[in-house]
Amino acid sequence: MEIILKKNKNFIFLALCMFCISCADKIEFTKYKSVPSAAWKAHENISFEFDVVDTLQPKNLFIHIRNNREYPFSNLYLITELNFPNGTKVIDTLQYEMTDARGAYLGKGFTDIKENKLFYKEEKVFPESGRYVLNIRHAMRKSGEVNAIPFLEGVQDVGFSIEKIEQK
């Protein structure tokens, strides 16, 4: 009986390793940055620098948000600024749903912390190689107000990832 359990444990470990390796093959870049005191300051950029070598294959780009129960809204507005090596800037205003219709937080996680993997750019082909910088800031406002919320509570970490697209 002990030999069977040992073989099963070895098989499970091997299967888990293969799964992790196959998932990691897709990821070209991933990084997270913590938000001090889980309160994202208005007009404060969270920046990610990354190098691009491949200018032929399309990639999927994701923004990752880890929020806790202190996050007070059902949605999230972000402003992104993608800076190219040649000085070109592309600015986008993005909106994401953070809760379902009942108010339950979306995302993965079994605890009070949820992680949302949000599409930023789909099938993006980078036009040139070199160093890129992505700046992300929140654009949340209370209804009817012009000024941004000074501190957006409940956002613990912001991440960015680039993934290869599997060829069909």
Query: What is the CA-based Rg, rounded?
Result: 19 Å
- Note the run of SSEs as H and E: HEEEEEEEEEE
Main beta sheet strand tally, sense and closure: 4 strands, antiparallel
Task: Please tally the β strands and state the result.
Answer: 10
Overall pLDDT confidence: 88
Count, helices: 1
Task: Give a short synopsis of this structure.
The protein is mostly beta strands and 168 residues long. 15% of the residues lie in helices and 46% in strands.
What does this structure look like?
The strands form three sheets. A four-stranded antiparallel beta sheet has the order 1-10-4-7. It contains one helix and ten strands; from the N terminus they run αββββββββββ. Mean pLDDT is 88; it is low at 13-22. The chain is globular and about 40 Å long. Helices cover 15% and strands 46% of the residues. It has 168 residues and is mainly β.
Write the layout of secondary structure elements.
Blueprint: H1 2-26, E1 27-34, E2 39-41, E3 46-52, E4 59-67, E5 75-83, E6 89-97, E7 114-124, E8 130-138, E9 151-153, E10 155-164
Antiparallel strand pairs: 1-10, 2-9, 3-8, 4-7, 4-10, 5-6, 5-8
Notable traits:
46% strand; four-stranded antiparallel sheet; 15% helix; mainly beta; 168 residues
